[in-house]
Every structure is written in C-alpha cells, then in structure tokens.
C-alpha cells in the first residue's frame, strides 16, 4: 500500500526485507532500496512531475506494482 502526501511517499507492507524500485516515465530506475521495516518513506519533493511505477519485490521474486502520480 502507498500514500503520497507532502512530498513523501509512504509504503506500508506486511512483509519486511523487500526490494523497492521506483521507475520514471522513461523507464529509468530513479530509486532503489530495501525495506527493513513494514513502513518505508521516500522523499519525492525534487522529482519531476509525472507518473512513476513503484515495484515491490519479495525474497521469492514475487512482485507487485503500483502507479503514483507526482503533480
């Protein structure tokens, strides 16, 4: 689950130790990190406006994807 507020993207997951990738509209990975807790915050204040894809990949390589719009 994700929530975008005040220039911060808050990700909440039930499982820890997941890989988080954020991909910009051109397909470039603009953010990569490992979630070490059930909540993870990403500062997106300086990112250009556009639609981004958030990928969350678990230890079994199963993944989910959500779209965020930065205006």
Please tell me about this protein's structure.
By secondary structure, the protein is an all-beta fold. Helix content is 0%, strand content 61%. It contains no helices and seven strands. The strands form two sheets. A four-stranded antiparallel sheet has the order 4-3-6-7, with no helix packed on it. Strand 6 (50-57) and strand 7 form a beta hairpin. The chain starts with a strand and ends with a strand. The mean pLDDT is 86.
In short:
The protein contains no helices and 7 strands. With 71 residues, it is an all-beta fold. The mean pLDDT is 86.
What keywords describe this structure?
single chain; 71 residues; mainly beta; four-stranded antiparallel beta sheet; three-stranded antiparallel beta sheet; 7 strands
């Amino acid at each position: 689950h994700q929530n975008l507020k005040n220039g911060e993207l808050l990700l909440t997951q039930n499982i820890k130790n997941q890989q988080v990738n954020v991909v910009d509209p051109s397909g470039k990975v603009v953010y990569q990190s490992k979630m070490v807790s059930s909540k993870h915050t990403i500062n997106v204040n300086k990112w250009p406006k556009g639609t981004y894809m958030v990928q969350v990949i678990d230890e079994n390589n199963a993944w989910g994807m959500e779209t965020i719009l930065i205006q």
